[in-house]
Write a structure and sequence with these properties.
Length: 428
Amino acid sequence: MKRIVVEGSQWGDEGKGKITDYFSQKAKIVVRFQGGNNAGHTIVFGSKKFAVRLIPSGIFHKGTTCVLASGMVVNPEAFLEELAIIKEAGFDTSKVLLSDRASVIFDYHKMLDGARETALGKAKIGTTGKGIGPCYTDKASRIGLRIGDLVNEKTLEKRLKNALEFKNRELESYGLAPLKFSEVFKKYKKLGEQIKPYVCDTSLFLQKEVKKGTKILFEGAQGAMLCLTHGTYPFVTSSSPMANSIPLSCGIPCNSIEYVLGIAKAYTTRVGEGPFPTELFGDLANEIRVRGHEYGTVTKRPRRIGWLDACVLRHAANISGINGWAVTLLDVLTGLDEIKICDKYIYNGKTIDTIPATLEEFEEYQPHYITLKGWKEDITKVKSFDELPKNAQNYLKTIEKLTGVKIALFSVGPDRKQTIVLFDPFEN
Ligand code: IMP
């Protein structure tokens, strides 16, 4: 297969960076298609650890072209900072392509993100504060600027003037000082000049490569439950992390996608607010949080912890057509006497195994669990499925049974070498 997707199947932070890094070795192109620097993908090799937010994780492989496609929202300052860090670490950044149709995150988007969250008070979303929502809002209300506008002085001047008129009114409505056009223009004109060498029509580029049969990896950020349409709305991000959104966000034909790899952490985590039926509290949650280093890459917030929820995985699989699972952080569960998986919910005395549209209803859902025996053996050095203790094998088999989707690979530690691949779509 030539075109595969790495998609988060829970609430983000499933360990996508590591899996993307693995498949990037085989892909000629790695594409980010949505979101912006709200994502944080951590990659570990040897003693080195990198966290990328905007640039596709393929950047650490020589010769890989990294595309930031049209569906993304890009903060040009953050983009340049990240490029500088990567360059300084000795990696080649000359093959980074930034779509001229991607949306620009301005300082005012970040300011509005913070102001809205404060105004929401207890009802806050718990955003990453990077201006993602306000930027996508401007895109939909057609007063946003795109990267193509930023690199053209005349368009920048015209569109920024128009946008600032509305944005300043909004800032003032939150009691914030309006921004001076001349200052914003000066700053972003310079940023536009700096990013220009990377900017092109990435749709045309990708269309050609799809036709040629080049191996392309699409790297999702966040996860299915944070999808603007199919997630736990309104506690979601403002784009769709699902594979379904790739053709549109990249400007390529609908039938381009050949394989969707759903990334599922062996348990569940969530940052930010919103319903989470399998959430755990107390010592067990703390133990898993510490062992799994469950603190936000971007915000450093401690993540909420819960048992694996098979209903969530099925929801993602049914919408995106997930072909195989990559189960990550399996080693974090080592040492537990029992491990639970939610197979359905109980609501008003009835059993339900799907995700409802309204969060008020979802908040009332009680998880129904099946309980499996844990394992005590160290699994961080296993090289095959057969080397796993029987109870760990059983855990993976149960995930397959409950979701109807095969395990394509599993991961038993942060290093590149600790990935056990059972089915490699690029080799099949
Ligand atoms: P935003 O994307 O910053 O607007 O945040 C909206 C929601 O998505 C919040 O609950 C965030 O915590 C969550 N979110 C955004 N990006 C990520 C991510 O990369 N991992 C996990 N959660 C995320």
